[in-house]
Design a protein that fits this description.
This protein has one domain. It has helices spanning about 5-10, 15-35, 40-45. It is elongated, with a radius of gyration of 23 Å. With about 60 residues, the chain is mainly alpha-helical.
Length: about 60
């Protein structure tokens, strides 16, 4: 039995549905994490690329 025979008999409509479910799960987890994060850690992450040493940012004020 060749591989093309195996895939020829499969119902391939399942794969897009599984992919959509995986994408929706990861997207929902990312949104959940963003909205659950505290403002201090978000401010730290937002300014991380702007400062050479990230530890000194905690004491700074805007």
């Amino acid at each position: 039995m060749r591989l093309s025979d195996v895939f020829g008999h499969l119902d391939l409509a399942v794969f897009p549905i599984v992919g959509l479910i995986c994408f929706a799960t990861v997207f929902a987890a990312a949104v959940w994490r963003i909205f659950r994060a505290d403002k201090k850690s978000m401010r730290y992450a937002a300014h991380m690329a702007l400062h050479d040493d990230c530890e000194s940012f905690e004491g700074e004020s805007e």
